[in-house]
Specification:
mainly alpha; 2 domains; Endonuclease Iii, domain 2; disordered N terminus; two-stranded antiparallel ribbon; 320 residues; 4 iron, 4 sulfur cluster binding; 48% helix
């Protein structure tokens, strides 16, 4: 029997602005009203569904993704978040994500390397800091395999500081440059396995790199935002981003695999934050399991030590 640890209550940020973007069709409005009339407690939300026994929450194997109620809930929440994000491209990832940091005038090999470097630097780092580090590398002519390979680890450290784990990442970048020169003609691997074989590159980075650098969608890139939001909404009940990826890929339409990361990362940066989520402004709060479970709870009187928010497309489960 696998037990789940009881999570701490997270204060929900209050807001005066509850305006939501308009829906696109009358059918959507009717479908949402029908969905809201259905108790979310009756919806099985993952192939690892939860079951309460003697006060303990346990997991049991199910096949819920054939459940029309679960898929109806998922599709409607996904649609509403997607519509909101389309109308509100104001998140850091919209202007400073890995797809926007490469030099579009550079050689294709160089562009792919720059995308890989952006992803490696983004782990445990805010997008704003990653963007500044990439800019500094460009200004110092250090953003191609040959250029970076000529630098010492200390020089790379100075250029990428203050990204998270900058010393470790400098070591990884130096090793990656050597591997790319020797094995890939200064290009990056063109498959997930090859990318994950590089020092400092985990599953999330590999899948995002494939879709962004090679325009090949091999899987869903799951970072802390995608992992958190998917669990809060009850789409999955998982412990790691990699478990979340496998669960999501079992029911998210393949044509959405390339969209879902950018969509949820931006939503996590602006609305569904790790600390102080803006639940009252959220377009899916009426069906969100996290909000329904926490809306009546009072914020703790004692000041809670605020965890550092990582507003980037990073994952703690990426290998560093």
């Amino acid at each position: 029997m696998i037990t789940r640890k009881r999570k701490k209550s997270i204060p929900i940020e209050k807001s005066e602005n509850h305006a939501l973007p308009p829906l696109k069709s009358e059918d959507s409005i009717i479908a949402i009203e029908d969905l809201y009339a259905t108790s979310s407690s009756n919806v099985c939300s993952s192939s690892l569904c939860t079951e309460q026994r003697n006060g303990e929450i346990t997991k049991k194997e199910q096949q819920p993704h054939d459940d029309s109620e679960f898929m109806k809930k998922f599709k409607m929440e996904y649609y509403l978040i997607k519509e909101y994000r389309t109308a509100n491209l104001t998140a850091p990832v919209d202007t400073m994500g890995c797809a926007s940091l490469s030099d579009k005038d550079a050689d294709e090999k160089v562009q792919r390397f720059q995308i890989l470097v952006s992803l490696m630097l983004s782990s445990q780092t805010k997008d704003e800091i990653t963007a500044k580090a990439i800019k500094k590398l460009k200004e110092n002519n250090a953003l191609s395999v040959s250029q970076m390979d000529e630098l010492s680890e200390e020089e790379i450290q100075n250029l990428i500081y203050p990204v998270g784990f900058y010393k470790r990442k400098a070591t990884y970048l130096k090793k990656v440059c050597k591997i790319l020169k020797e094995k890939y003609d200064s290009d990056i691997p063109n498959d997930v396995k090859g990318l994950q074989s590089l020092p400092g590159v985990g599953p999330k980075m590999a899948y995002l790199c494939m879709s962004t650098a090679w325009k090949q969608v091999e899987g869903i890139g799951v970072d802390t935002h995608v992992h958190r939001i998917s669990n809060r909404l009850g789409w999955v009940h998982t412990d790691t981003p990699e478990q979340t990826r496998k669960e999501l890929e079992s029911f998210v339409p393949r044509e959405e695999w390339d969209v879902i990361n950018h969509m949820l990362v931006g939503f996590g940066q602006t609305i569904c934050k790790p600390i102080g989520p803006k639940c009252l402004d959220c377009v899916v709060n009426k069906t969100c399991q996290f909000y329904q479970n926490n809306k009546d709870k009072k914020s703790p009187k004692k000041k809670v030590k605020k965890e550092e928010e990582i507003d980037s497309s990073s994952s703690q489960d990426d290998q560093e």
